[in-house]
Amino acid sequence: MSSTPMLTTDALTVKRWEMTGWLNLGQTTALGRMFDRGAVYFPEEFLGKESRGDDITYDYIGKMTGNPLGEGQTMDGNEKSLDLGSFSLVINETRDAVLIPASGIEPQRAKLNMEKAAKTVLPARAAELIDTGVFQQLAGVNPTSFTMNGTTFDTAARKLHVQGHNSIVVPTSSRIVRAASAATDQALTSADKMTLQLIDYIMELNAVSEQPIEPLNNGEYDLYLHPYQIVDLRMDATSAIQWNLIELARLESGSGSNDFDAKFGNKFPRVIGKYGNINLIEHPRVAQGATNDTGAVITTVRRAVLVGKNALTFASPYGGRPSDKDVPLKIVDQLKDYKKYKGLGFELLYGLKKCSPSNGQDIGVSVISTYAAAHA
Q1: How far apart are the first and last CA of the chain?
Q2: Residue 52: beta bridge partners?
Q3: Mean pLDDT of all residues in the chain?
Q4: Phi, psi (deg, nearest 5) at residue 277
Q5: Out of 110, 123, 168, 252, which could bridge 142 as a Cys pair, Cβ 3.0 to 4.6 Å?
Q6: Which residues of 150-187 are buried (b: 16+ CB within 10 A; e: fewer)?
Q7: Is the pLDDT assigned to residue 5 strictly greater than 50?
Q8: What angle do CA 167, 82, 63 make, to 5 degrees?
Q9: How confident is the model at residue 52 (pLDDT cuts 50, 70, 90)?
Q10: What is the dihedral of CA 310, 311, 313, 319, to 10 degrees?
Q11: Cα–Cα distance between 268 and 28 in angstroms, integer?
Q12: Do 278 and 200 touch, CB atoms closer than 8 A?
């Protein structure tokens, strides 16, 4: 009698785990929601096992400007040049692993299934690193050192893993507002908190921009705020327009569904309210501020990001969209010391970067920088 085993080392089993891990990652990250909403541009150039290279440059043609010609004027010799610009993207790898006892007395002593636990924490760690990179990129902030969930990233090499493997580009001139019209993050004081007025200001700035941010797939924008900013917004009792009053009216009327066509089926981050056509979304990894002279992190400042179409570029030779057959998250394992120990790890091969051409405004994101500190 013969059988066809499906052991944990079988390639098909590993592939299924990778796919499941990536789909779960998409359900619980801001990146997954952004994929669903049309906020992520995915280039095809890296896609496929036959693709080569780790850097690509995209061209970007700016708007035509200057006076046109009329009756009696000569066009020949008065033509204008195209406004050619570009932005580039790099892909690289991020790896991490755990080592657990695989046989002998140690697994016998523990009720915990260590391998099962490892298969839970590895994709979660990958998600944490990716989402941190998403918000560092979109906020356009590059502190010399910052701490995320107990881990400090204090060198250029370490920070690349939480910056999407790409250099940070500061917000362009019409893509950032600060509370109280502060010129820098360090100028923000404890009185300069998040309000609906600031959201109106950033939308006004967008409306008069020569290159407005386009809305997402269903005509809405997503505004990601840190939990401290959400509390400040809820507690605001002095502005002419107050978010709590709007939400109360919405609840009383029974309106305000925030559903959208989600291919990843997002469970997190959650929409906690709506202002006009802007979804207000709470996320703990919204980036901190930084001083503009030394680059020191400012733990009492957060940079909320208003996200529209093509705010971010994400690339990997393995895909990453829900429709792709492969995923950037690879799971590897190896036995050590005569099968006494087992190492389980993940490898991410990808790059992500804010879409910011050299000759124009940031394409799909604006920043609202405010004072934001814990209230407890």
Answers
A1: 66
A2: none
A3: 87
A4: -100, 30
A5: 168
A6: eeebeeeeebbbbbbbbebbbbbebbbbbbeebeebbb
A7: no
A8: 75
A9: low
A10: -60
A11: 5
A12: no
Measure the CA–CA gap between 235 and 232, rounded to whole angstroms: 5
Q: Residue 371 region, left (φ>0) first, then alpha (ψ -120 to 50), else beta?
A: beta
Question: What does the domain layout of the chain look like in residue ranges?
Answer: 11-61+83-371
pLDDT reported for residue 48: 64
The length of the chain is 376
Q: Specify the pLDDT at position 11.
A: 52
What's residue 265's pLDDT? 65
pLDDT at res. 53 = 65
pTM strictly above 0.85 = yes
Residue 49: what pLDDT?
A: 58
CATH of domain 11-61+83-371: 3.90.1690
Q: Which residue has the tokens 């509390």?
A: 231
361 secondary structure, DSSP code:
S
Closest to 151 (Cα-Cα) out of 178, 132, 179: 132
Residues 6+ apart with CB under 8 A from 97: 122, 332, 343, 344, 345, 346
**Tokens 């499906």 correspond to what residue?**
6
Task: Output the six-digit token pair for 129.
Answer: 């690193």
- Of 8-12, 82-86, 229-233, least confident by mean pLDDT is 8-12
Q: Which ranges in the chain belong to alpha helices (H)?
A: 11-27, 30-37, 105-109, 114-139, 156-159, 196-207, 227-235, 243-253
Rounded Cα–Cα distance for residues 241 and 190 (Å)? 20
Using alpha carbons, select from 165, 187, 205, 233 the residue that is nearest to residue 306.
Answer: 205
Query: If you ran DSSP here, which 8-state letter would residue 152 be given?
Result: E
